[in-house]
Prior knowledge:
Spore Coat Polysaccharide Biosynthesis Protein SpsA, Chain A, two-stranded antiparallel ribbon, 10 strands, binds manganese (II) ion
Amino acid sequence: MEKFTWNNAKTMTRYTEKDIDSLSFSSRLDIQTRTTWGAPIIWEGMFDPYIYDAIHKNLRSSVALTVFAVGRYLDAYLWTFLNSSEHHFMLGLPVKYYVFTDMPEKLPNIKLAPQRTMKVIHVERHSRWQDISMMRMKSIADIIESDIRQHCTHVFCFDVDQVFTGRFGSEALGDSVALLHAHFYRLPVKRFTYDHNPKSKAYMETGDFYYHAAVFGGSWESVKAMTEACYQSIMEDKENKVEALWHDESHLNKYLWLHKPSKVLSPEYCWDTSIGSPSEIRVKRLLWAPKKYGELRVP
Ligand code: 5GW
Ligand code: MN
């Protein structure tokens, strides 16, 4: 493996394998910093933000952020999500937001920083919330093909019911990136809520981790492959009249078991404050917004 230096940062093409050299795996002895297949698990203290930002500026990395705000989720969450992202998400790199909504005219007015732009995409509102959630996979694959691939090197896909509270920067970029679910990272695999129904394409008995579908990303090529595969599996399940236990998240977990991510994000990157504050969570970068199911999940 070629060693990272300031001089070769510009010429490194497959940097995702090379940037590992700049990580300090032993700076955190309290938690697991590498997967069994060698991918880094990113925790505070393992990376130098300045080196990462320099690598990605040299490589001219640019990041698409996709987020869906359909129905009541627009008023409830979108402004807070975007406003906080302007303060914490990939600062210093070009960012293009792709906001999917059924009410483009109701979009909040947010002044974006230089090098940060937004595209609004009109989507229909599915009547079942499970479909709103699952059909995101199809919309993301389509927009990567029609737009993102021409403008951005990387894509990150987010739930809207969250708020950035700390750096979520270029250290999170990689070829394919998945997030450890805050409620499961300390539990044994037996406790993971994979889909255990053999009739579903998402069926799996065992796996590596339980990943949270609220945040995933990677190069546009990888995210396109990931979302297309999940969409295919969702449609096959529909034909077979089954639905996976946790919908798109179950399919994403199956895909990531078969196609191991090249980088894993610790739960710092999507923390639920109701869990409390265990000592290994030194920084909270993104928080779950309070659930408003009572208001939002009425038909
Ligand atoms: C509405 C009712 C139940 C479940 C989902 C929705 C819903 C989700 C919606 O009405 N509008 C919408 O835009 N969404 C998008 O799907 C949001 O981006 C949301 O963050 C994402 C996933 O739904 P969540 O956040 O309610 O799912 P969990 O797994 O965080 O509970
Ligand atoms: Mn959510």
